[in-house]
Design brief:
Helix content is about 35%, strand content about 20%. The chain is built from eight helices and eleven strands.
Length: about 220
């Protein structure tokens, strides 16, 4: 209703994205994300660390004619941005967290707690001489409103992999028809984490295969 009436209403959703099970740690799905993103005029924020959460809150307060959802993890997430810049990067919807010096071989796009997974995967790919850029996308609604030149610069013109603990939804819009989507959820074999770091290894393995195939056909 708030979305139809252009009323600023702030919704806060918190969820445990990890739970202890007999076999180890299992990642829980963020299934409502796809449904929430499908509501017109609703801004959905999924920050990946404390800095992004603070910037997302600033965006929420600025959105006078939009209801917003802050989709937060109750886990202790590491801070990948050590300082707050003068610009509010979350306000762009998505931005580059890690840019290789000599160009990209692949772009890893992630939201929320999966940004840390993407950064770890990029480190693993570097050992195989694969240059991976990492993009944090805390709000796709704001990103879709950016100029096309900005979106193209962030996403790059190399193969893309989307990483999120939920259903694919509209991810194809951002990773392209040839992109890969890694769904970290109990319904997917990728989502079961039996030891620390397994998610990053799986993402790195998928990315390595995607780059190898692209080079073979390119």
């Amino acid at each position: 209703m708030a979305a139809k009436l252009n009323v600023r209403v702030i919704h806060l959703i918190t969820q445990d994205f990890e739970s202890k099970a007999q076999g180890g740690v299992i990642h829980q799905t963020a299934a409502p994300l796809a449904s929430l993103r499908g509501i017109p005029n609703l801004l959905v924020f999924r920050p990946g660390d404390a800095v992004e959460a603070a910037e997302a809150w600033e965006c929420v307060l600025r959105a006078q004619a939009n209801p917003s959802v802050l989709y937060l993890s109750r886990q202790m997430l590491p801070t990948f941005r050590k300082s707050i810049s003068d610009a509010n990067l979350v306000a762009f919807g998505a931005y580059v967290v890690l840019e290789p010096e000599d160009g990209r071989d692949i772009t890893l796009i992630a939201t929320g707690s999966e940004v840390t997974v993407a950064l770890e995967a990029a480190k693993r790919l570097e050992r195989h001489h694969i240059r991976a850029a990492v993009v944090s996308a805390p709000c796709f609604e704001l990103f879709s409103g950016q100029p096309e030149t900005y979106r193209a610069a962030v996403l790059g013109n190399v193969p893309r992999i989307g990483i999120e603990a939920g259903p694919e939804g509209d991810w194809t819009s951002w990773i392209g028809g040839c992109g890969e989507f890694v769904c970290i959820s109990p319904a997917n074999a990728v989502g079961v984490c039996r030891e620390p770091g397994i998610d990053a290894r799986i993402v790195a393995t998928i990315a390595l295969k995607r780059v190898t195939n692209a080079r073979a056909t390119g």
